[in-house]
Amino acid sequence: MGERMIKLENLTKIYHSGKEELCVLEDVSLQLPRGKFTVLLGPSGSGKSTLLNLIAMLDKPTHGKIFIDGQEITALKSEAARSAFRLKKIGFVFQFDGLLPEFSLLENVEMPALMCGNPDKKQAQKLLESFGLGSKIHKLPADLSGGEKQRASIARALRNNPPLLLADEPTGNLDAQRKLQVFEDFARMSQDGLTIVMVTHDIHAADYAHNVFNLEQKKLVQVK
Ligand SMILES: Nc1ncnc2c1ncn2[C@@H]1O[C@H](COP(=O)(O)OP(=O)(O)O)[C@@H](O)[C@H]1O
Ligand SMILES: [Mg+2]
Question: 116-158 pLDDT, tens per residue?
């Protein structure tokens, strides 16, 4: 298994649309240790989401290999195998909370555990309490503020206790105060052993992270 949580080996991603080719990542290699908070910066369109989606197995690289927690995920052949691995190992937080509107916060957070055949609403409740949402567990997402919804979506991503949390611009939708709160939460969670990779174009996030990379010209450049 080793100490590395993520290993990228000669990763290249080329999008094809008609005759056009767009190379977004070119021969990127990288290793990230466990229990660190890594921030991935870069302007809009530089390929941040592309990279995160490849790590989350939401898309496939054109060339190269990806290892997570010792498993080569690019070698997983079936969608069933990828889903099972994702459900156990990866929590994903999107820019927009992605909560299911017709379910309460508690039901939303419980969903990943249900999908794993491992339901326990007490755990979901505890998790929501740890994000300061204990009094809101029976509310629908529409009855919450943007910051509350985003915290609930982080709680949901953590429900199956994954070793890896991926977040794509999770604060894109929040005011400055709420934004810093999320960065602080992520820094604290990585102290507790969680590996976190967060994509953002907010330079302030760098202050909270162990590692910072810039995605520029199809390459990752470490700046912290
Ligand atoms: N599915 C796709 N097909 C073709 N081009 C894409 C696709 N997804 C993203 N792109 C292009 O790849 C580049 C990187 O996109 P993206 O990874 O979303 O950047 P970022 O998240 O840094 O804003 C952009 O030019 C975007 O238009
Ligand atoms: Mg993006």
Answer: 888 999 999 999 999 999 999 999 999 999 889 999 999 999 9
Whether 174 is in a domain gets the answer: yes
Tell me how far the alpha carbon of residue 35 lies from the centroid of ligand 2, in angstroms.
Answer: 24
SS3 86: helix
Q: Is residue 126 in a domain?
A: no
Q: Give the per-residue pLDDT at 2.
A: 56
Q: Write out the residue range of the structural domain in which residue 8 sits.
A: 4-100+146-222
Q: Which of 12, 13, 15, 213, when mutated, tests ligand 1's pocket best, judged by the most ligand atoms within 8 Å of its CB?
A: 15
Helices and strands, counts by H and E, the chain: 6, 10
Is the CB–ligand 1 distance for residue 44 below 6 Å?
Answer: yes
Give yes or no for residue 159 CB within 6 A of ligand 1.
Answer: no
d(CA 40, CA 52) in angstroms, rounded, equals 9
Distance of CA 16 to the CA centre of its chain: 25
Nearest CA owner, ligand 1 atom 2: 15
> Where residue 152 sits, what CATH number does that domain have?
3.40.50.300
The tally of domains found in the chain comes to 1
Report if residue 112 sits inside a domain.
no
CB of 42 closer than 6 angstroms to any ligand 1 atom = yes
**pTM: predicted TM-score of the whole model, two decimal places:** 0.94
Mean pLDDT, the chain, as a whole number? Answer: 94
**CB-based contacts of 30: which residues, under 8 Å, 6+ apart?**
6, 7, 8, 213, 220
Ligand nearest to the CA of 18: 1
Closest CA to ligand 1's atom 17: 47
